Amino acid sequence: MNLQNLIRQHLAAIRALAVLTVITGIAYPLVVWALALVPGLSDKAQGSIIEVGGKPVASSLIGQSFTDADGNPIPKYFQSRPSAAGAGYDPLASGASNLGPESIVDTPADPAQLKPGGDPAEAGYKPSLLTTVCARSAAIGTLDGVDGRRPFCTGGGVGAVLSVIGPRDARGNVVGPTRVVSVNEPCTSTSAPFLDTYEGVKVECAKFGEDYSIGQIVPIRGAAPADPAVPADAVTASGSGLDPHISPAYADIQIDRVAKARGIGVDQVRAAVADNTAGRDLGFMGEPRVNVVQLNLELDQKYPARG
Predict the structure, then answer these.
(1) At 104, is the secondary structure helix, strand, or coil?
(2) Structure pTM?
């Protein structure tokens, strides 16, 4: 390749670089910036920030926790759905728990490391997705005065799961169990398994350090209604962990509590819920949803809690 051709190729590359720089580095950003100034889009471009008294307090696109310093729900507020993003609704840790339908057996706490009144997680306890859902449902049932029972959950709010030990048939199913253990219920001096017997065998509570994976893991449905009063979005986190919305069904079971805490009528709270409920996008995509952040701000402005 002679010098003339080499110079010509380099000049062509420089011209292409200049043209692409103008298009992608100057023109495109300017077009996007101009579109962001269009009325109706500017608010979204600025992060959908909600201001109260001239001060930014929230984003309508990011959920918040409405709990006290100990993590307990504040009665006057509608509660958001759970979040697995960091400590809750952390945009820098957006994500899900990555637990799936097969997560039904808890990792028990080590009794030797478990301090009285301490956090079981510090002693190695890791609840399964099933137990997490059961515990959340039971807690919401108590908070909002509804039936918190769910299929495959014990009355104590843990996963109702047995390890059935015994000889197996060709398909791997236990036939004639010789031992049955409630794997998510650790033994204590006063505890008793959620089920007395299974196929004629007395059910034991779990003991730390024993391996129950040798048995067939069997979830027990129990007597809970097929359609739980506590909806699914109340006990499961969104994929991002930042969702500010809940279902109308979850909002509905919270109305009485919020009305009582604020000393106002149920109809007034229902009207606020309706103000912050969006329908399906374009009339057919997604599901109706209630923006909890906007709803609680409206209630604070219109009906501050007494006392």
Answers:
(1) coil
(2) 0.82
Cβ proximity of 250 and 81 under 8 Å: yes
**Side chain identity, residue 81:** R
Quickly list DSSP for 33-65: HHHHTSTTTHHHHTT-EEEETTEEEEETTS---
Query: What are the φ and ψ backbone dihedral angles of 174, each rounded to 5 degrees?
Result: -70, 130
Other beta carbons within 10 angstroms of residue 254's beta carbon come to: 25
Q: Is 75 helix (H, G, I), strand (E, B) or coil?
A: coil
Structure tokens at 195: 């089920």
Token look-up 């374009």 returns: 282
- What integer pLDDT is reported at residue 97 of this predicted model? 86
The β-bridge relationship of strands 216-219 and 179-186 is unpaired
CA atoms of 71 and 93, how far apart (whole Å): 19
Give bridge partners of residue 247 from the DSSP assignment. Answer: none
Structure tokens at 184: 């998510």
Place of tokens 């005065």: 145
pLDDT tens-place string over residues 24-64? 988 888 788 776 666 655 555 555 777 777 787 778 788 89
Is residue 133 within a helix (H) or strand (E), and if so which, with residue range? helix 129-144
Residues shown for the chain:
307
Q: Which residue has the tokens 């590359």?
A: 13
51 Cβ partners below 8 Å, 6+ apart?
A: 57
Asked whether residue 263 carries a pLDDT value surpassing 70, the answer given is: yes
**In angstroms, rounded to a whole number, what is the distance separating the alpha carbons of residues 70 and 63?**
19
Calculate the CA 245 to chain-centre distance.
11
| Three-state SS letters, 236-273 | CCCCCCCCCEECHHHHHHHHHHHHHHHCCCHHHHHHHH
Structure tokens at 193: 């398994």
Local structure of 304: helix, strand or coil: coil
- Cβ pair 198, 185 in contact under 8 A: no
